[in-house]
Amino acid sequence: xxxxxxxxxxxxxxxxxxxxxxxxxxxxxxxxxxxxxxxxxxxxxxxxxxxxxxxxxxxxxxxxxxxxxxxxxxxxxxxxxxxxxxxxxxxxxxxxxxxxxxxxxxxxxxxxxxxxxxxxxxxxxxxxxxxxxxxxxxxxxxxxxxxxxxxxxxxxxxxxxxxxxxxxxxxxxxxxxxxxxxxxxxxxxxxxxxxxxxxxxxxxxxxxxxxxxxxxxxxxxxxxxxxxxxxxxxxxxxxxxxxxxxxxxxxxxxxxxxxxxxxxxxxxxxxxxxxxxxxxxxxxxxxxxxxxxxxxxxxxxxxxxxxxxxxxxxxxxxxxxxxxxxxxxxxxxxxxxxxxxxxxxxxxxxxxxxxxxxxxxxxxxxxxxxxxxxxxxxxxxxxxxxxxxxxxxxxxxxxxxxxxxxxxxxxxxxxxxxxxxxxxxxxxxxxxxxxxxxxxxxxxxxxxxxxxxxxxxxxxxxxxxxxxxxxxxxxxxxxxxxxxxxxxxxxxxxxxxxxxxxxxxxxxxxxxxxxxxxxxxxxxxxxxxxxxxx
Length: 534
Description:
By secondary structure, the protein is mainly beta. Among the domains are: 1-154, Alpha-Beta Complex (Outer Surface Protein A, domain 3), CATH 3.90.930; 437-534, Histone H3 K4-specific methyltransferase SET7/9 N-terminal domain (Single Sheet), CATH 2.20.110. The chain contains two helices and 47 strands. It has a 25-stranded antiparallel β-sheet that branches. It has a 15-stranded antiparallel β-sheet that branches. Strands 16, 17, 18, 19, 20, 21 and 22 form a seven-stranded antiparallel β-sheet that branches. Strand 42 (480-487) and strand 43 form a beta hairpin. The longest helix is centred in the N-terminal third of the chain and has 26 residues, at 2-27. The protein is globular, with a radius of gyration of 30 Å.
């Protein structure tokens, strides 16, 4: 408890200091250190040792445009921009070693997009960025949707759902081994229920309800332990959430084929001459379904076969009595062809896996680590030619991606960081090529499209994924086709269309994303809408 209090105090102290720093950086530029308000234009402020402390543009006595602040050592402390004096796009904050501490996405002066916090306590050799501590999605200064919080070793700590800035629905809490420990239900920010699962007692023995989930969050199986032994019902669900198997245990022994909701299913057991269980599995109208297990003389599972509802084999390997997969596994198409092969350890895919097309050609191959894709993965067309190469780290895209057409042309190329596209990207889409940059998964800066002969087809700027400023479209001969204008994704001003000879054929006027005039003629809008645009 003493350690917990110290840890909480330390975290709160860091958060307080960081809040003060952010307040000074974002809202405190008007404290100039001189009595006179500086003139408009580019300005710099200095520490007593002559080192620049901050620099940017002043407009009407207030900060506007791009601003950068520095530590007294000259290392960058923060950078970001304002548009019409309001915080805009991605703001980045650094520690005194130059590592990124936070990135905050703004639009119209409010948080809109992801607020990401980083930690460098467990920096991995060869990685030039830290582990994410939190990733929160904001809409108009309020958390919205899923937010993710992590231990300093990069492992997921909790998943929290927000609606209008308040916790709503299911929150999942994990231990440092990645096992879900609590399911907490919220309504309008208040806890309505809490379920503790997957727990050990002080002696390290399993107790109570244990649950496993599919990657999409759906329940995979549920079981109850008493002093480390299965007691009560074992329930198993398919990926669609349907109950497919219910068994009843007492002191780790299967005692009943209690299949709820389907009286047509029975568990059939086979025994050897010493009355030892040899095989066990469910049948429905004499058709094998679900998990069928084979046992050695000491009661250990030595083989398992999984059938679908039609008696077709879908997987072969080992599923122990707790429902966990182990050893070498093979998955099959319903028509019998090999679909995938690889290894499980403690119910997690691990090591090299291969997936196959129905014609037997390799479809994809790569490595898993505790159930998460890792390292280089390759995808192939059904004729064996390469389709895509992609790098992963801890289950997320991390590193380069390159994708090819069937004739070997590059159609997609770029880099990911922590599951988000970052930096320069190239796309070959249909009859044209797209080139531009991403920042934290969103289009940013100038994007250009080209026809197959390299003639410019489109050019325009993006800020935080939103089109901004003038966008131009061109005919194949290079003649101007359209001009559009945006302000952070909102349609504004005059949009113009030209025929191939360069004649202006249409002008559409927008205000606040609403079409108000066409070729100078006022658009007849409903009264409620007209009030918004006039």
